[in-house]
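Protein 1 of 2
SEQ + STRUCT:
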Amino acid sequence: MARNKFDVDEELEQEFSWKDFKRLARYVVPYKASIGKVLFTIILANLAGMLAPVFTKIAIDSAIPDQNKMQLFLIGAAFVVTLLIIGLCMRYRIYHITNIGQDVLKDMRYDIFEHLQRLPFSYFDTRPHGNDFDPCGQLYQYTERSIKQWTDQSDLRCFQCSDHTDFMLVIVRQI
C-alpha cells in the first residue's frame, strides 16, 4: 500500500459495509422530495419505453396488412413522441441525480471539515496522512461506479430507441 504519496491511489482493504452505508444515508434524507421526483421520471420513461412494442404490434397486425398509411403515420408520430418523452426524462434524471449527488458530497465534506476542526492536534501527530477517511473513499468509489453504470445503461436505451425508429421508417417506405 502506498503511503504519503499524492499521485498514487491506495487500494481499499475493507469491503463495502451496509453499516457505513446506513450511517451515511442520513445525508440523503434532506433530498427525499428530489429523489422522489427523479424516481417518478424514471418510471415515466420506462412506461413510455414499453409502448414501443405495442406500437409495433398495432403496426404489424393492423396498419401494414390493411395498407393504412394514415394509421401507420400516426403510430410513427406517437412513437416519436414517446422517444421525446424518454429523452426529456433522461435529461431531467441525469441533471437532478448529478445535483443531488453533488449536494450530498458537499454536506459530507462540510461535516468532515467540522469534525476535523474539533480534533486535537495530537490526533494528527499519531496518524499517517491520508489514511483517516477510508469509508468516505469507499462511498465515493461506490457512487462513481454506480453513476458510470447508469450512464452506460442510458446510452444503450438511446440506441435501442433509434433502432425502433429506423425499423418504423423502413416499414413506412415499403408501403
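Protein 2 of 2
SEQ + STRUCT:
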Amino acid sequence: MNIFQKLYVNFLISLKPIVKAIGKIYPKSSDKERVFYYYDYLIKILKPGYVILTISDDHLSNLINPSRWKHSVVYVGTETYHTSVGEVEIPTVVEATGEGVISRSITRMLASKDRIAVLRPTKELLKNQKQIDSFVKFVKKQVLKPYDYGFDSFSKNKHSSFYCHELTYAGITAVNPEANFYLKDFAGIKTVTGDDLFKMIEKKKFELVWIC
C-alpha cells in the first residue's frame, strides 16, 4: 500500500463515527410493503449460500454510495431463536453493517428494503455442495467482527473485518481460491461493489434467481 492509499484509508477510518451515524438514519419516504408481499415465495426459493442484493431508497448512506445495489447479505438458512414460546426456527441472513457483522432474521432485514435481487453462485464460483456449505460456515463464523472501514481485502489482516460485499467475496474465495471476481480500483484500492456482483450474472458466475 503506497503513501496515498494509506492516507486515503486513514481518512476513511476518521469518518467512521459519521458513517455509522448516517447508516442509522432512515427518513420515512418509501413503501416497503412491495417486497414483503412476496415474502412467502422468497422463503420457498432461498437456499443457504444465496446472495441477496438490496436497495433502500430512503437510506441516507445512499448519498455516499454510488452503486445501484447498495448492500448485500448472505442467506444462511434457518437458525434457532429462543423466544417466550420456546425455540423457533427462523430464516436468517448474515450481513456486514456499520455496526459490524451481524446475524438477523430475514424479516428484520427486509423491513428496510425497497428492492432485492436474489443471486445463486454458479459452479464458476462454488463448484459443489461441499464448497457451498463451507461458504455458509465461513460467513457465519465472521459474526461479531467489526465493519471494514479501510476496505482492506488483501492484507494479512483481511479477514479481521468486512464491508458488506467483501463478506461475499472473502467467503467464496476462501473456499475456492480459483473463483474469479471482478474487482474495481478505487483510489488504488481493489474493492467489490453490489453492481459488480450483479454484473457477474452476465459472466455466468451468478444466476439471477429472482428480482423485485
